[in-house]
């Protein structure tokens, strides 16, 4: 079996964008349960040699499949999501969709562990006022209320009130 690095090199030589994107997605799925390989692939995808349209599509795909990884079988899931968030942060405007998906996965993991403040912080880091992704008033209100609920789970009333006040701006009579 070829190494991840040799596969990345082979894929990088594919001329057709659709074919290249599909090859990257296949490689991701082949190594979905290997933390070191996944990190290598993410670093490669975010490099300057990979076209943004390809890296965005593949990273978004990764964010969707990572959500389905069983944390009990793969305890490194939290570490990997945090790794991905750190790697895409400098280019957040280009990777807003996977950022949201990773943060929602992270929040779900924290909620399962009853770490409600961490879950709230993960969701609060989503930019609901983004100019690149439009959220409806209902979506914004729901997200802010969810964050407030998480803070209330730990009796953090000041933070909860802050998010309730944000939600109230989007609730119309």
UniProtKB/TrEMBL annotation:
Residue span(s) of domain PSMD12/CSN4-like N-terminal: 7-171
Coiled coil: none
Keyword Kinase: no
Domain of life: Eukaryota
InterPro entries assigned to the protein according to its UniProt record, in alphabetical order: PSMD12-CSN4-like_N, PSMD12/CSN4
GO cellular component, one term: cytosol
Keyword field: Cytoplasm, Nucleus
Cellular location(s): Cytoplasm; Nucleus
PANTHER family associated with the record: 26S PROTEASOME NON-ATPASE REGULATORY SUBUNIT 12/COP9 SIGNALOSOME COMPLEX SUBUNIT 4, COP9 SIGNALOSOME COMPLEX SUBUNIT 4
Protein name, per record: PSMD12/CSN4-like N-terminal domain-containing protein
